[in-house]
């Protein structure tokens, strides 16, 4: 499992990225009213690869302790992009990201008890998910 989880992180990033290809294909996302805190699109392209690298490292180090929760959160992570960008279902995506945050809160609790370094390394992922949930909720409520 130790080597499988980082490979699954890479696959998740690819699956999620495939949905993002459709962002500009129909203009749907550009036409949405967004929060004034919504960063420029290129920020996501910088942040997500860093977060995926962190997730791969932490999952490699903690595979035996977090594998079940981690696989579930990867599935929810990959599904979010498809729900939001491909299916244009921000409310369903908001439910998905809420589940994603819940699962990662459980993971972070395990990390906190096992390794402060891995806890602090993984924390930005949970914080970014919370910010992404805020942006997702803004789109639900503003449109």
Explain this structure to me?
The chain is an all-alpha fold and 143 residues long. It has helices spanning 4-20, 28-31, 41-61, 63-86, 90-114, 116-142. Helix 5 runs antiparallel to helix 6 (116-142). The longest helix has 27 residues, at 116-142. It is globular and about 45 Å long. The chain starts with a helix and ends with a helix. The mean pLDDT is 91.
Based on CA atoms alone, the radius of gyration comes out at: 15 Å
Order of helices and strands: HHHHHH
The tally of strands reads 0
Determine the strand fraction and express it as a percent band: under 5%
Q: What are the segments in which pLDDT stays under 50 over at least 5 consecutive residues? A: none
Largest sheet: none
| Structural classification | mainly alpha
Helix content: over 70%
Instruction: Figure out the total of helices.
Output: 6
**Overall pLDDT confidence:** 91
Write a short abstract of this structure.
With 143 residues, this protein is mostly helical. It has six helices and no strands.
Throw out a few tags for this protein:
globular, 83% helix, 143 residues, mainly alpha, single chain
């Amino acid at each position: 499992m130790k080597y499988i989880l980082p490979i699954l992180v890479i696959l998740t990033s690819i699956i999620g990225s495939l949905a993002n290809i459709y962002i500009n294909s129909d203009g749907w996302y550009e036409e949405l009213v967004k929060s004034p805190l919504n960063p420029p699109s290129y920020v996501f392209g910088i942040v997500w690869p860093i977060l995926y690298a962190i997730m791969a490292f932490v999952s490699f180090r903690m595979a035996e302790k977090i594998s079940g929760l981690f696989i579930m959160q990867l599935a929810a992570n990959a599904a979010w992009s498809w729900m939001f960008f491909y299916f244009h279902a921000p409310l369903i995506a908001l439910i998905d990201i809420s589940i994603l945050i819940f699962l990662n809160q459980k993971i972070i609790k395990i990390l906190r008890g096992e390794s402060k370094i891995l806890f602090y390394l993984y924390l930005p992922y949970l914080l970014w998910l919370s910010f992404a949930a805020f942006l997702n909720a803004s789109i639900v409520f503003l449109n």
